[in-house]
C-alpha cells in the first residue's frame, strides 16, 4: 500500500501499473476498495483509460468513488458512449445516482446534455429525464433534447408540459424546439405558442412543412410570414420555391421569384438552383436560363 501511495503522489503510471500487474498475477485482492480506487484515479488522470477500465472490470469491491473516477474520465474526454455503458452497469436507483459526481464536470452543461441526449436517443426516457432534472445549468439544447425524447416515444403530453415550463421560466423556445417533432402538427402548435417569431423560427417551420410533403402549408405559412413583416432569407426562399416546384405551381413560383427581386434577396446558389428547377419542371426554359445566368457558381446539378 505504501508503494502504491508513493506512485500516486509521484504520478508514476509505469510503476503503478507494475504494482497492479504484480497484484493481479498473484491474485491479490485488497480487502477494501481504497487501493484500487487510488490506482483507478491515477490511471484515469494519466489518460490511460484502457488500463483504468480493465482494473475497474476486475475489481471485487466497487463503491461510489470507483464509479466516479471512471465516469469523470469519460466525461472530461467527451466519450459519451462509454459514459452510457458505465451508467448502464450501475444499479439504477436514486440512492446511488444521487451520490454520483462527475468530477470537474458538475457544471459542464455540454457533458450533461450529452448524457441526456444518449439516453433520449435510445428511448430510455426515465434515465434521460433523471439527468435532465439534475443538470445544473440547462440551456435551450437541454430542453430540446428532452422534448425530442418524449416526441419520439409519442408522449406529447410530456412534450407540451416541458414546452410550457420553458415559457414559465422565461426561456425562449428556439427554431429547433418548434420543428423538433417529426409530427409536423405538433411542431405547428409549438410554433404558434412562440410570441415573437424571428426569421429563423419561420424558416424552420416552413422547411418542416416542405420536408414532410406539406407544400401547400409551406406556401400558406410563407404568406403569413410576409404579412407579419418578417424578411425571409435564402433558406426560406429556396424551401418555398422547392415546394412550388413539387406542386408544379408556376404562378406561385413566379410570385416568389418576384418577391426575391423586390426584396433584393441575394441570388445565392441555393435560391438560383431552386428557381432553375422550378422553371425547368414547368417547361419555362427562358426563365430557367435567366436564373441560370445569374448564378455566381454552377455545379453539376444545375
Outline the structure in words.
Helix 10 runs antiparallel to helix 11 (156-168). This protein has three domains: 1-106; 108-192, Serine Threonine Protein Phosphatase 5, Tetratricopeptide repeat (Alpha Horseshoe); 197-302, no CATH class. It has 19 helices and no strands. The longest helix has 14 residues, at 234-247. 35% of the residues are buried. With 302 residues, the chain is mostly helical. It is elongated, with a radius of gyration of 28 Å. The protein has helices at 2-9, 13-25, 34-45, 49-57, 64-76, 80-89, 94-97, 109-121, 125-133, 140-152, 156-168, 175-179, 184-193, 199-211, 215-227, 234-247, 250-262, 269-281, 285-294.
Keywords:
302 residues, mainly alpha, Serine Threonine Protein Phosphatase 5, Tetratricopeptide repeat, 3 domains, 19 helices, PPR_rpt
Distance between the termini: 72 Å
Count of individual domains: 3
Helix content: 55-70%
Structural class of the secondary elements?
mainly alpha
Mean pLDDT: 76
Order of helices and strands: HHHHHHHHHHHHHHHHHHH
Query: Which stretches are poorly predicted, pLDDT < 50 over at least 5 residues?
Result: none
PPR repeats: 63-93, 139-173, 198-232
GO molecular function: RNA binding
InterPro entries: PPR_At4g14850-like_plant (IPR046960), PPR_rpt (IPR002885), TPR-like_helical_dom_sf (IPR011990)
Pfam family, one: PPR
Amino acid at each position: 500500500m505504501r508503494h502504491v501511495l508513493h506512485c500516486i503522489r509521484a504520478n508514476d503510471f509505469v510503476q503503478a501499473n507494475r504494482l497492479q500487474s504484480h497484484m493481479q498475477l498473484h491474485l491479490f485482492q485488497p480487502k477494501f476498495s481504497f487501493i484500487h480506487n487510488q490506482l483507478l484515479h491515477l490511471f484515469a488522470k494519466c489518460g490511460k483509460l484502457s488500463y483504468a477500465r480493465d482494473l475497474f472490470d476486475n475489481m471485487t469491491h466497487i463503491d461510489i468513488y470507483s464509479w466516479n473516477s471512471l465516469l469523470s474520465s469519460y466525461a472530461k474526454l467527451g466519450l459519451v458512449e462509454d459514459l452510457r455503458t458505465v451508467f448502464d452497469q450501475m444499479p439504477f436507483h436514486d440512492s446511488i445516482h444521487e451520490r454520483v459526481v462527475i468530477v470537474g464536470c458538475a457544471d459542464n452543461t455540454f457533458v450533461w446534455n450529452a448524457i441526456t441526449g444518449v439516453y433520449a436517443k435510445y428511448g430510455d426516457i426515465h434515465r434521460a429525464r433523471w439527468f435532465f432534472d439534475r443538470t445544473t445549468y440547462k440551456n435551450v439544447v437541454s430542453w430540446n433534447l428532452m422534448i425530442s425524447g418524449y416526441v419520439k416515444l409519442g408522449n406529447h403530453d410530456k412534450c407540451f408540459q416541458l414546452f410550457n415550463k420553458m415559457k414559465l421560466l422565461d426561456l425562449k423556445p428556439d427554431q429547433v424546439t418548434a420543428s423538433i417533432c417529426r409530427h409536423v402538427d405538433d411542431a405547428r402548435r409549438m410554433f404558434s405558442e412562440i410570441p415573437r417569431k424571428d426569421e429563423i423560427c419561420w424558416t424552420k417551420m416552413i422547411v418542416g412543412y416542405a420536408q414532410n410533403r406539406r407544400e401547400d402549408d409551406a406556401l400558406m405559412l410563407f404568406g403569413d410570414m410576409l404579412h407579419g413583416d418578417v424578411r425571409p432569407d435564402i433558406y426560406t426562399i429556396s424551401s418555398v420555391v422547392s415546394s412550388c416546384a413539387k406542386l408544379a405551381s408556376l404562378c406561385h413560383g413566379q410570385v416568389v421569384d418576384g418577391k426575391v427581386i423586390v426584396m433584393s434577396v441575394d441570388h445565392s446558389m441555393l435560391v438560383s438552383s431552386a428557381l432553375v428547377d422550378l422553371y425547368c419542371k414547368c417547361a419555362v426554359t427562358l426563365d430557367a436560363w435567366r436564373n441560370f445566368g445569374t448564378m455566381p457558381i454552377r455545379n453539376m446539378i444545375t
